[in-house]
Amino acid sequence: MTFLSRRALLMAGAALPLAAPAALRAQPAAPRLRLRLLETTDLHVNVYPYDYYRDRTDDTVGLAKTASLIAAARAEAPNTLLFDNGDVIQGSPLGDYMAYSHGLKPGQMHPIVAAMNGLDYLCGTLGNHEFNYGLDYLGVSLAGQNFPSVCANAVKADGTPLVAPTRVFTREMVDEAGAKHSLRIGVIGFVPPQIVQWDQANLSGKLTTTDIVEAARKYLPELRAQSDVVVALCHSGIAGGDAKAGVENAALFLAEVPGIDAILTGHQHLVFPGSDFANIAGVDAKRGTLHGVPAVMAGFWGSHLGVIDLSLEKHAEGWKVANFAVEARPIYERTADRKIVPKVEAAAGVLAAARTEHEATLAYVRQPVGETRGSINSYWALVADDPSVQIVSNAQTWYVAQLAKTAGLGDLPLLSAAAPFKAGGRGGPDYFTDVKPGPIAIKDVADIYLYPNTLRVVKVTGAQLREWLERSAGLFNRIDPASTAEQPLIDTRFPSYNFDVIDGVTYRIDVTQAQRYDNDGKVVAPDAHRIVGLSYKGQPVGEAQEFLVATNNYRAGGGGNFPGADGKTIVIEAPDLNRDVVVRYIVEQKVIDPAADGNWSLAPWPAGAVVSYVTGPGAGAFRPAGLAATEMGHTPEGFTKYRLGHAG
C-alpha cells in the first residue's frame, strides 16, 4: 500500500475536499472478525425428545435436538462460543428422579450435565430453579460441569459469592483475512433476586441476593477493562415500565448499564426476537435489541438455539462491535394442519450421555399409585372449575386438616389454593393435562402438578382473600359488553400458574370489569372489582374474618406478588412436596373421582359479546356441563378456538 508523504499532503492542502476521500481510501482496513454466540436456556432437564408425562416421544423438546443445531451453527462460523443461561437441573421427571429417587452424591454426575459436557460450553449461569433441591445438591451438580458458571447477584451468608460473579476467557480467533487474534471474552451472570423468597426453606440464612442492575454496575467496570467483548448471561426476562430495584425481569434495564456487548436472556420461556415483546419501549422485537444491545432468548426445554453474530472491528482502543445479527433457531416447525415437523435429528452422543437415567426415569414415572374413575384434564381450566385443579385442592385440604389441628389452628376455616399448570399458552396446543380413567401413575401426578413445590399454609383475612382472588383474576382480558367484535378472553401474558382457584369458598368473576391488578401485581384500577358473591358456607366473607389457605412455598413466599402471601403470613411450613401430597392422597384413597365442585364461575356477559377462548384440540370431549362453547376453528399454532356463550 502506498502512503502519501508529509510534503505531498501539504501540497494537496488547497484541494483537500477532493483529496481527502482518496487519502481515506488509502488507509489500511481495520481487522474485522465475526464472533458467533450461541445460547441454550431453560433446558429444565429435557435431554431426550420425550414427554415423560404422556410417556411418548416429543419432537418439540430436548437438548439432543438442540445439539444438532449447535453443530450446524458451528459449521457455519469458525469463531463460535456456546453458553447456557440457567434452569438446568430441575423441571422434568428426570430431574425429580435424580433428586428424590436416585440421589446425587459427591463425585457423581447429573445426566444433563454429562450431556452438556460433550457440547463444549464456554460458560453458564444459574437459574432460579437451580435452587429447588437445595445448595448441597446444586453444589454437586456444578462440580460435575467441565465448564464454569457465573452469577454476580447471589451471595452466601459469609458475604462471599456463591459462584464467581464474572469470568474472562481468552480464545484464539481468526479474522476475515485469515489472521489470528487473541480475544478476551468477559462473562457476567445474573439470577432473579426473588429466589430467596421462592426457595426460602432452602436458602434462609444461607444466601442473599442483590438487584441485577446494582450487581452489574458493581462488577462491569472491572470486567470491561479486562475484556475485548462482554457477554451478560441474564436468567431474567424482558419487561417494560420503570426500572425499580429488585425486579424479576430486568434484562431491558440491564442493557442500559454501560459495557455490555450482548445479552443472553431467559426465564420467561419465550422467544426473542419475536412478537411477544413488540411495543415495549426500548425493545426492537424484530432486530433483537434491548436499548440497542443485541439480545436473544432461546425459548425453553431446548426448543430453540439462540444465535448472536457480532461483527467486530479492531481499532487502536480495542475491538468494537460494528454490526450484528440475532435469531432464535427452532428445532421444529408446525404445519398448517397442526402437525409437528422436526427440523433436526437428535444427536446420538447427547442421548447416550443420559440413556441409563432416562430409562430409569421411565420405570419411575410408570409406577401406579391408585385409580381414577374420571378423566383428569385441564382443557377448560381457565374458564370453569376443573378436575385437574380440584384433585390438588382435595389433596391439600386432606393433608393440612391434621396439620392445622396439631398447630392449634384447627378452629379456623381451611381453604386451598391451586392453579392449572398445563393450560396451553407458551407450551403449545398439546400442553394440557389429560389423564384417562383407570390406573394413575406417578407420571400422571407429575402431569397434574409440575413443580417440586413444598406445601405451605398461610393465615389471611377476608379482605386479603378477596384481593388474592382479584390478583388471580388478572388472567382475563376485560370484555367490553357493548362490543360485537371478537374479544379473546385470556390475557396470554398472564401465566396460568398464577391463576389461583381457591377452594372452600364460592365466588364469581366479572370479566366486564377492568383488571384490578397489572401483571406485576400492582393495583392499577382501584375502583374495579371482578370478584363478586364471595361466600363461605353460604354467608358473605367478612373483611376481618380469618382463614387458613393451603398453598405452596412459591406463592406463600411472595411469588407472583399476591396480597396475603408475602412470606409474613405463613403459619405452617410442611415437610412434604405438594406433588407428594397428591400421591399420598391417591394412595390413601385408592380410588378417586376428582369431579370439579363448581365453587367458582364466570359472571354473565351480554349474549351479543363474541368472547373467544383457545384450548387444545382434545377439549371437545370434555366440555364442562353448563358451559356453552361453539367451535370457531383452529389457530395457526394448532389450538382450537371456541366462542363461549354468555356465562351464567
UniProtKB/TrEMBL annotation:
Q: Which PROSITE patterns match?
A: 5_NUCLEOTIDASE_2, TAT
By its UniProt entry, which InterPro entries does this protein fall under?
5'-Nucleotdase_C (IPR008334), 5'-Nucleotdase_C_sf (IPR036907), 5'-Nucleotdase_CS (IPR006146), 5_nucleotidase/apyrase (IPR006179), Calcineurin-like_PHP (IPR004843), CpdB_N (IPR041827), Metallo-depent_PP-like (IPR029052), TAT_signal (IPR006311)
Q: Which Gene3D superfamilies match?
A: 3.60.21.10, 5'-Nucleotidase, C-terminal domain
Q: Which domain of life is it from?
A: Bacteria
UniProt entry tagged with the keyword Metal-binding: yes
Instruction: Name the reaction it catalyses.
Output: a ribonucleoside 3'-phosphate + H2O = a ribonucleoside + phosphate; a nucleoside 2',3'-cyclic phosphate + H2O = a nucleoside 3'-phosphate + H(+)
Residue span, Calcineurin-like phosphoesterase domain = 36-269
Presence of the UniProt keyword Metal-binding in the record: yes
Q: Where in the cell is it found?
A: Cell envelope
Q: Which residues form the 5'-Nucleotidase C-terminal domain?
A: 433-563
Q: Report the principal subcellular site.
A: other
The UniProt keywords, alphabetically, are:
Hydrolase, Metal-binding, Multifunctional enzyme, Nucleotide-binding, Signal
Secretion signal span: 1-22
Cofactor(s) of this protein: a divalent metal cation
Q: Which NCBIfam families match?
A: PRK09420.1 (NF006938)
Question: What family does the entry list?
Answer: Belongs to the 5'-nucleotidase family.
**Protein's name in the database:** Bifunctional 2',3'-cyclic-nucleotide 2'-phosphodiesterase/3'-nucleotidase
Originating species: Roseomonas haemaphysalidis
- Native organism taxonomy: Bacteria, Pseudomonadati, Pseudomonadota, Alphaproteobacteria, Acetobacterales
